[in-house]
Amino acid sequence: MKTIEFRQLKLDQSLLRILEEIGFNECTPVQAECLPLILKGHDIAGQAQTGTGKTAAFLLSTFHFLISSKLQENTNLRAIIIAPTRELAIQIHKDAEIFNRYSDLKLGLVYGGVDYEKQRAALMKGVDLLIGTPGRLIDYLKQGVFNFKHTEVVVLDEADRMFDLGFISDIRYLLRRMPKPEKRLNMLFSATLSYRVMELAYEHMNNPTLIKINPEKVTADRISQILYHVANDEKISLLISLLKCTNTTRTIVFVNTKRVAEKVW
Fold first, then answer.
1. Among residues 193, 181, 167, 203, which one has the least CA distance to residue 46?
2. Which residue, 57, 68, 166, 172, has most beta carbons within 10 Å?
3. What would the mean pLDDT of 103-122 be, rounded to a whole number?
4. Where is the DEAD-box RNA helicase Q domain (predicted)?
5. Four-CA torsion 129, 202, 46, 89, nearest 10 degrees
6. Helices 86-99 & 13-21 angle (0-180, nearest 10)
7. pTM, whole model, 2 decimals?
8. How far apart are alpha carbons 246 and 40 in whole angstroms?
């Protein structure tokens, strides 16, 4: 694939300045495929793994659109990014703060498990770009804290995980209360573009262009993989045994919840 530099794209100058400051000069493959199309106003359904630069792709597109479009008076919630987990929502918000360095857009972040009223109070002050998880977004929407009347950009990240975690009915609830697909810019990213993900895309997007970025290599050459079939109550003892019998100085243990992490620790 031909290398594309960010300065070759028609991005807002403030965004190009930020990219230069953080040392981003060339697009990753997913950015090179998606950005030119999105900047022309085309909807995108992209297949891309974590670590491919997809977050920067949809954040750059979102900020460019919001900065460049004419702002109507008394508008609220111009863009929304929906993530399946609070950890992902928090990370997207951190990245968004970087691209908001030279603009005065109001960013919002909502997710479950934290002070409900504090988040609600922040939203009541107004927000241009809201990042959040499905359940908490629906809670505030039903309360009338915000509405989608002026929503111009919609991003659905890790769409396949929305299905896996049982959020798809919530996603459809939110999307059906937004302006018609042709009245907004839509971006969907997923590790896989399965039938059910594409069904969602075609139902709630405006003739999206499909972008597939296949990882060059799934695992590194020097990494070996071993699968152990073990009962849940035996996992900790197996982990301890493996740590004792392997001659390692640094180890990373991945778990799927905070509770399990605390238990292992």
1. 193
2. 57
3. 92
4. 4-32
5. 30
6. 110
7. 0.81
8. 53
